[in-house]
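User: Quick sanity check before I run a bigger batch. Here is a single chain. Can you write out its predicted 3D structure?
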Amino acid sequence: MDVTPRWLEPEEKAAWDSFIRMQETLIGRLSRHVQTDSGMSASDYIVLSSLTERGGGRMRFLDLAKSVEWEKSRMSHQVSRMTKRGLTVREECPDDGRGAFVVATPAGYKAIEDAAPMHVERVRRLFVDALTPSQLSTLALISKRILDHIEKQPG
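Assistant: Done. Predicted structure follows.
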């Protein structure tokens, strides 16, 4: 079946282009700062913050991968690197022989506790401080709407 693309109108393209540029610039800058400030990669930070904020320090491997929108193989490689550095450990799941937990170690907790204050300050300076409270609220609503829309889409 041949589908004719619905090309973006100039206003749509401008919104999309500026969103992508903003997102890539912001994430790139924050990633570099995390590395410089803490010696952790942005991926280390994402995994440790997900484990400690959402999972109480321990999450099923597949739940962790899903929570950060990563493929299983990417999460596996990341956790292996972090385990070698003593930031996480894997624990077998007693209920499911195929499942495993990823657990933040004391060193992992210390790393995220040391990195988080500077990261939050940089998020505030680069993102929050650029917007009024009303703009921030609007952005949160728009972001949630897009995320809800994405969740309704197949695959």
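The chain has a mean pLDDT of 94.

User: Great, the batch can go ahead then.
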